[in-house]
Specification:
Pfam families: Hydrolase_4 (PF12146). This protein has about 325 residues and is an alpha/beta fold. It has one domain: 3-Layer(aba) Sandwich (Rossmann fold), CATH 3.40.50. About 45% of the residues lie in helices and about 15% in strands. It has 14 helices and eight strands. An eight-stranded mixed sheet has the order 1-2-4-3-5-6-7-8, with helices on both faces. A hairpin with a 2-residue loop joins strand 1 and strand 2. Helix 4 crosses helix 5, helix 6 packs antiparallel against helix 10 and helix 8 packs across helix 9. The radius of gyration is 19 Å and the shape is globular.
Length: about 325
């Protein structure tokens, strides 16, 4: 029987110490719900005083909760950390555009422009996890002019951080077979009538299977909390169309497609047991970027943000140190 009792977060103490404010911003047709962490995000005056603005983009079928353990561990004086629910996920409503990669990139450009205007002198750092790493990479890279389409400039940031970046096509990863199984599952959800399709795609049993597959920790209490997080938030999507469009985007694109056009100083935080991207692909990704550093965490998989947030936050803090920026 699946757990239904709230499982306390192992990072609750650190989170409780951080001021958190929430609001809703209309962006690209989406009523985008936003959580802001730290002393510099409580009102217009403190937003304007922020020294560093960190915009966080979560992964597929997640919401802002996913990266809270990393946010809680950051050495955040002077930080304004902004974590939205992506359109169509969590409590954010869908956007006007199709929920494919282009749609999310356009949304991200507009969202960053909105929050950046409130902290005009702040250093801008953008963080993406998993599918969020693809969205961030595509936004940073921009796109050349095509037949009938104008060029899109890359998102201008000071620094970028990609956690569990999707560095190669998912179908070629260590568990390409599992990816194909997932594609079959989503196709079944798409082929069924609307209500039944939604039931299939939000099935608690399937969510537990996915959670068990991704978790690598042997710590029973931590595994139980991870499963609880997935059951609470993994099926918080607006409708079947949103979740299917975003899934197609997540398995049809990867960061390596955009790496050569990314000029921002970038930190890659990868895992040696990531079932989606082999570690060799992470090294190739680093080498293909103009200014990238790679930190590899041992004994963890695709859930760095849940299983190793302390190490991830330390890597980010070290990367954002003024001395590191100057080197």
């Amino acid at each position: 029987m699946l757990d239904r009792v709230t499982v306390a977060s192992p990072y609750a103490v650190e989170l409780s110490r951080m001021p958190v404010t929430t609001r809703v911003l209309p962006v690209a047709g989406s009523e985008t719900h936003v959580w802001e962490y730290g002393e510099c995000g409580s009102d217009a005056e403190t937003r304007a005083s922020a020294g560093t603005l960190v915009v966080v983009v979560h992964g597929y079928r997640g919401d802002h909760h996913g990266l809270e353990p990393v946010i809680a561990q950051l050495n955040h004086p002077g930080y304004r950390v902004v974590a939205p629910d992506l359109p169509g996920f969590g409590v954010s409503t869908p956007m006007r555009a199709v929920h494919d990669l282009d749609g999310y990139v356009e949304w991200l450009h507009e969202f960053v422009e909105r929050v950046r205007a409130e902290s005009p002198s702040a250093r801008l750092v953008i963080v993406g996890h998993s599918f969020g790493s693809i969205v961030v990479a595509a936004a940073l890279a921009g796109s050349p002019a095509g037949s009938g389409t104008p060029a899109r400039p890359g998102l201008a940031v000071d620094d970028a951080v990609l956690i569990n970046p999707i560095a190669a096509p998912a179908l070629k990863g260590p568990r390409g077979v599992m990816t194909r199984v997932a594609i079959g599952y989503y196709r079944l959800g798409a082929a069924a009538p609307e209500k039944l399709g939604h039931v299939i795609l939000s099935s608690p049993v399937m969510v537990r299977v996915i959670s068990i597959t991704m978790a690598t920790t042997k710590n029973k209490a931590l595994r139980r909390w991870i499963h609880d997080q997935h059951h609470r938030y993994f099926s918080a999507f607006a409708n079947r169309t949103v979740v299917l469009d975003a899934f197609r985007a997540s398995v049809s694109n990867d960061v390596s497609e955009y790496a050569g056009r990314i000029t921002a100083r970038t930190l890659l935080i990868a895992a040696d047991k990531d079932d989606i991207t082999p570690i060799a692909a992470q090294h190739r990704l680093r080498d293909s970027m103009s200014d990238a550093r790679l930190v590899v965490l041992d004994d963890v998989g695709h859930l760095i943000h849940y299983e190793r947030p302390i190490e991830a936050a330390r890597a980010i803090d070290a990367f954002l140190e003024p001395s590191a920026s100057a080197s």
